[in-house]
Design goal:
With 384 residues, the protein is α/β, with parallel strands linked by helices. Helices cover 41% and strands 16% of the residues. The protein is built from 14 helices and 13 strands.
């Protein structure tokens, strides 16, 4: 007998409730989407598959949290669980649809599958990945996308990349933009100054916030800042060390900026809004992004932003940021100089930022995802 309620499973094993760099990026996306999805998919049963770590999603009547007994924090174990354990579980709990939330679905999924793809950086910039990671993603993302009933991409740029790379029909790839959390907003001057004093921050600084890795062009930012250096202005590189972080340290040394660069390390989620508000300029010259949440967050805080004109970053920035060609050190230096020296330009961008950020909503993202579920699994196709 057909069921009147869809039973959707979501593989969220990359979700982490711990307040570390592991809770950034994809983990941030998963937490926010899953927090809003029950309301958007109130006509469905949701089973969320997670690992053995802390999970901050609040269970509801229509939501079941299913914890794995496998130690899936270890990538090889997680891959084995996805390919062999998850199909068995999906069959036993009677899923009508399986949504894999990070690139890869089980190749032997017993029900229709949907997969979310954040970017194809492992294809576009394989030299900036560990060889084993790149190989795994190249093989399994291609296979997963080709067998999926629907692929969700987090930007038009990623959608275009997926269609071109895997030869998919455009109708099979849907854009689901991330949202911006309400805590990212302009703060009162007194609050920001108290934060600056508590941490001993410089009176003026350019902020970068993200993982310190080559794809983010952090070394390029260091060299551009050296060219745009102004008395009393510092460069803050906030974020956890990533792949090839030694390149960043070498760039600082070669530019003679040891005394002008502040590296506070990983920034806790609740403090990000204070850092954005305290900065004169937010710089995010990444070579390639599937979306670019730090840019969105900075815009929401009313911080003037300079970022690259590549991949999805123009979609996020709109006309509220200064866009420069990716990899162009001179253009980045010129943009930093303008924003540091020109108060009117800086104020104009600061005024546009919150309105641009307001275009991106997690509730809308959840509604788009629920629409895909309904389209992929009509009620007449649902099992009992």
């Amino acid at each position: 007998m057909p069921s009147s309620v869809r039973h959707v499973g979501l593989n969220a094993h990359l979700l982490s409730g711990r307040d570390t760099y592991r809770s950034a990026g994809i983990h941030h996306y998963l937490h926010n989407l899953l927090s809003h999805l029950p309301a958007a998919a109130s006509d469905m049963r949701l089973t969320i598959f997670v690992g053995d770590g802390d999970v901050t999603i609040q269970p509801e009547a229509s939501v079941k949290i299913c914890r794995s007994r496998w130690p899936t924090r270890r990538p090889p174990v997680r891959i084995a669980w996805e390919q062999f354990g998850l199909p068995w579980v999906a069959r036993n709990v009677g899923l009508d649809l399986l949504h894999s939330l990070a690139f890869v679905s089980p190749l032997a999924a017993p029900c229709p599958a949907v997969v979310t793809v954040y970017d194809l950086s492992f294809l576009r910039h394989p030299e900036k990945f560990r060889a084993s990671n790149s190989l795994y993603l190249r093989i399994f993302t291609r296979l997963s996308c080709r067998q999926a009933r629907q692929v969700m991409a987090i930007s038009r740029s990623t959608r275009n990349d997926v269609i071109a790379a895997y030869g998919l029909a455009p109708a099979r790839v849907t854009v689901v933009y991330p949202g911006c959390e309400p805590q990212f907003q302009p703060l009162p001057h007194a609050v920001v100054e108290a934060f600056r004093e508590r941490l001993g921050l410089p009176g003026r600084f350019v902020l970068y916030l993200g993982t310190l890795e080559p794809r983010k062009n952090v070394g390029l930012l260091v060299r551009a800042f050296a060219r745009a250096r102004r008395p009393g202005v510092k460069l803050v590189l906030a974020g956890a060390p990533g792949w090839h972080v030694a390149e960043t340290y070498r760039a600082i040394e070669e530019a003679g900026l040891a005394g002008d660069v502040v590296m506070p390390g990983y920034i806790k989620a609740q403090e990000k809004v204070l850092w954005y508000n305290a900065a004169d300029v937010f710089a995010y010259p990444s070579a390639y992004e599937g979306f670019g949440l730090p840019v969105l967050e900075a815009l929401a805080c009313g911080t003037p932003v300079v970022t690259s004109d590549s991949a999805a970053l123009p979609e996020v920035a709109g006309d509220a940021a200064c866009l420069v060609p990716a990899g162009d050190e001179a253009a980045l230096a010129a943009a930093l100089t303008t924003l540091l020296d020109d108060d009117s330009r800086r104020m104009a961008l600061a005024a546009r930022g919150p309105a641009q950020a307001a275009k991106f909503s997690w509730s809308v993202a959840a509604e788009r995802v629920a629409e895909v579920y309904r389209r992929v699994t009509p009620l007449t196709a649902c099992s009992s």
